[in-house]
Amino acid sequence: MRNKQIILPAVCGVLIGLFAIFAAVCLVAQPAAEADVHGFHPDLQVEKVDAERVIRVNGVTPSHISAGKQVEVNRPSPEPILAAAPAREASASKAAIQEPVTKSGKDAHAELGSLLKLHGITALPELPKQDRAKVELGRNLFFDKILSGNKDIACATCHHPAFHSGDDISLPIGTRGVFLGAQRQLGYGRDFIPRNSPEVFNRGFGEWRTMFWDSRVSMNQWGKLITPAGNKLPDELDNVLAAQAMFPPTSRDEMRGRFGEIDTQGAPNEIALLIDSDFRGIWRMLMRQLREIPAYVRLFEDAYPSRSVRELGFEHAANAIAAFELETFTFVESPWDRYLKGEKNAMSDNAIDGAILFYGKANCSSCHTGNLFTDQEHHNIGVPQVGPGKKNGLDVGRAEVTGLQEDLFTFRTPPLRNSTVTGPWMHNGAFTKLEDAVRHHLDPVRSVLNYTSRGLRPDLRKQVQDDPEVQVAILKNLDPKLRSIGYLNETEFEKLLAFLRALTDPAVKDLADVAPYTVPSGLKVDRQGS
Q: Which of 123, 140, 382, 517 is deepest in the core (most CB within 10 A)?
């Protein structure tokens, strides 16, 4: 039996190369007996060794595997995919452990300066002030549940200033949910939204061309907006952030609600009656509701004095929401920003060493590029599957948009500014500690196979996909850039974390007062602790 398992992959090597992604997806659906594969990744070897569904995967014994479903691991030599710190420190050479992490003092500044010049890193400029009337309109809209079909959720519910423009939980809870932040609870018959609520810091800079984890809203090189609405998208959107604001109110699970539901005021949810593809109808109905509120009419008149309110569309509301986000959530005074502006004492020595690692040996900048710390491209870094997924319990990432096999399990690189306060981390909030999220990059195979749900809230723990076939499908197509991450010892790892902390602007921790006490609709405003 074992001889067949060794020979079969060699014979089928060419076919596996042609249909690798197809095979990875099929593994999720096929029984274990059909999962006898070899060489999914240059460093990923999987084989079935007996009828008891014993699966052998590279070098790590998954902690969740029980009797009859055991995974044995013997990491191939000479090179693993990545080396984790500190797990492999004991086996590292003494010379590697004792090797100086970086230079110090003037030499460190000079070395970092050379790296910054090489990567084209400069200080972020001050953005021009947004129109005050448009910002005030956007502020009210951002916190007003009038934009939801059931009148029970606002943009701010999932992007709240009190939680650093996020919601403080791994996966969002949409309409019919109750409470705020970590205390938020699912409504009856509802499930989690499949993807983590991203922070919205610094989205006003011109480099931004994509929105959402799968970039389903983006701007191409000719300035054309690409969105799920296709040619139904209005023309007068100010930027890609405004285009993004058009879509959460159209999502049934996020804000719009389901057929036949009654809103919090006891009225039928009319917006939910429209079919999902009727974007224009949804946006028209939202604007009709806003025009029925005199205070909103005045706010629109102030924000767009040269236009009749009757001729304004929801795109003008989205422009105002974007203006509010740009004015409120732009922060360029982190220790890193100050360092780039010439304040050499703004960062600690450890943070400077960490920056040298980031742009040098650790090569984090291969994906977290530029002044925004994201290449806005999509990568499979082997994140464990957590949550309900988009389809059949899985979230295949960018492939959901493109339909391309090479995009399976890829997600857009997140920016890193203020990342120390915007957890949980990853596209599904799989990691509730920043240290764990960083360590994952160092050895994704070990991280996926040994992933546990202990850090997740109890009602999400049961939605962790720890089936070996699913794990193999995820790990099959790991991004080759992960190979370029150098081995870090524990001292270097701590210095890298010090650099990440230096990317946080202290002002982001004091935003609770941004929320208004009342909004024109009269609906309750979610404030911290409410």
A: 382
Contact 125, 236 (CB under 8 A): no
Please give the residue that has the higher pLDDT: either 237 or 34: 237
Say how many C-beta atoms besides its own lie within 10 A of residue 5's C-beta. 14
Are 124 and 332 contacting, i.e. CB atoms less than 8 angstroms apart? yes
Asked if the peptide bond before residue 424 counts as cis, ω within 30 degrees of 0, the response is yes
**So what's the pLDDT on residue 513?**
86
- Find the helix or strand (DSSP H, E) in which 48 lies: strand 46-50
What would the pLDDT profile of 78-129 be if each residue is shown by its tens digit? Answer: 233 333 333 333 333 332 333 444 565 789 999 999 999 999 999 999 899 9
Residue 253: partners with Cβ closer than 8 Å, 6 or more residues away? 174, 175, 190, 191, 193
Residue among 73, 530, 135, 128 at smallest CA distance from 317:
135
Closest to 526 measured CA to CA, from 220, 266, 230, 155? 155
**Residue 170 Ramachandran class (φ > 0 left, ψ -120 to 50 alpha, else beta):** alpha
* Integer angstrom CA distances of residue 399 from 269, 381, 395: 32, 15, 9
Q: Which of 497, 402, 343, 421 is nearest to 166 (CA)?
A: 421
Report whether 93 contacts 489 (CB < 8 A).
Answer: no
At 196, the amino acid letter reads: N
Query: How many whole angstroms from its chain centre is CA 275?
Result: 28
pLDDT at 105: 76
Please enumerate, as own/partner, the contacts of 387-394 that have beta carbons within 8 Å and a separation of 24 or more: 387/170, 387/171, 387/192, 387/194, 387/195, 387/428, 387/429, 387/460, 387/463, 388/191, 388/192, 388/194, 388/463, 389/194, 389/465, 390/194, 392/28, 393/465, 394/28, 394/465, 394/470
Return d(Cα 426, Cα 432) in angstroms, integer.
9
State both tokens at 131: 């129109």
DSSP readout, 247-307? SGGG-IIIII--TT-B-TTSSB-SGGGS-TT-HHHHHHHHHHHHHTSHHHHHHHHHHSTTS
Phi, psi of 98 (to 5 degrees): -85, -5
Which two structure tokens, joined as six digits, stand for 108? Answer: 């460190």
Look up the pTM and report it: 0.84
Q: Is 16 exposed, middle or buried (0-12, 13-18, 19+ CB in 10 A)?
A: middle
Nearest to 209 by CA among 234, 243, 182, 181: 243
Tally Cβ neighbours within 10 Å of residue 392: 8
Under 8 Å between Cβ of 134 and 319: yes
In the numeric block, which tokens belong to residue 87? 């797990």
